[in-house]
Amino acid sequence: MVSSVFLDNILTGPVIAFVVAFIAAMLRFDFRIPEALYSILSFFLLLAIGIKGGKALAGATLGEMIKPLLATVVIGVVTPLIAYALFKRLGRLDVTNAAALAAHYGSVSAVTFAVLVITLESHDLTFEKFAVGILAILEIVGIVVALLVAHRSTSDSSWKAGLFEVVRGRSIAILIGGLLIGSIVGAERLAPTDPLFVGLFSGALTLFLIELGAVAATRVKDVKEAGIKVVFLSVLIPLINGLVGAIAGSAAGMSTGGVAVMATLAASASYIAAPAAVRIALPDASPGIYVTASIGITFPFNLLIGIPIYIRLAEALT
């Protein structure tokens, strides 16, 4: 079963596209999509995720959401604190860089979530209707906690400006917009749009991951600046946070697919919302460290290895 999950996760269009683009970029081939298309694809994917969640959310009740939402808040608080402590103590980083990394590892990756959804569907594993709402909450809470930690430890952080950037950020706005569209209009009336938002989703994700594969390859050269300890922690922390997410999801009584979602979101690292907030709130933090860790190390790890682990963990706990 474990090998089947690994193979089914790796042998998908989006994941193979990421690997091929990564290798091509390392070999210095021009294998990137136009910047304008990248922006369109990111908008499309976030909107499609939001609409899908909104359609499902329309049929959810408060009673079935309350425990998972409480678990979400716990994850949003605990995971950035774990990341901060480990990067500061084991990684020997200063407060600013440790907090910057904590913001990334406390927040989430919508693209990692999208790949997980495809893998779960290939195994006929369903998950709770409100998962996209959890995604939106975690994207904000983890960053806020990390910025508050930095604010308590140093007077250099513009945490209010960073918080404002998170709340009004593009990714959050698109996700919430999609949730509203899906929940207000409903699945039946949105059926005519399914060929676009459902049928083309996997293809759009494949194109998007071509660009991310190339971007991840460009960060390899910055591994030296990040340091071997940060590289090691960029793999260890997702595993620890993934375990926290799985336990929280299981304690909340979620399904196997739902626990896998909680584990994967907890284990993922943001590379859209968090960098924008950190750039404003913690201007002295090094992008060579936090961008390299999140997209150069953690994202490929989760994409290729982490997701099957989190699914297997969910199966063991449910």
Would you kindly provide a written description of the structure presented here, covering whatever features stand out?
This protein has 318 residues and is mainly alpha-helical. The protein has helices at residues 2-10, 13-26, 35-57, 62-89, 95-106, 110-122, 131-153, 159-167, 170-185, 187-190, 194-197, 201-218, 223-226, 228-251, 256-267, 273-281, 287-317. The protein has one domain (1-33, 61-127, 141-155, 206-316). It is built from 17 helices and no strands. Helix 12 crosses helix 17 (287-317) and helix 14 (228-251) runs parallel beside helix 17. The radius of gyration is 18 Å and the shape is globular. 53% of the residues are buried.
What's the rounded overall pLDDT mean? 89
Total count of domains: 1
**Helix and strand string, N-terminal first?**
HHHHHHHHHHHHHHHHH
Form type: globular
Task: Count the DSSP helices.
Answer: 17
Short structural summary:
With 318 residues, the protein is mostly helical.
Keywords:
318 residues, mainly alpha, 17 helices, 80% helix, globular
How would the blueprint of this fold be written?
Blueprint (H helix, E strand, L loop, with lengths): L1 H9 L2 H14 L8 H23 L4 H28 L5 H12 L3 H13 L8 H23 L5 H9 L2 H16 L1 H4 L3 H4 L3 H18 L4 H4 L1 H24 L4 H12 L5 H9 L5 H31 L1
Helix pairs in contact: 1-17, 2-12, 3-9, 3-12, 4-5, 4-7, 4-14, 5-7, 5-17, 6-15, 6-17, 7-8, 7-9, 7-15, 7-16, 8-16, 12-17, 14-15, 14-17, 15-17
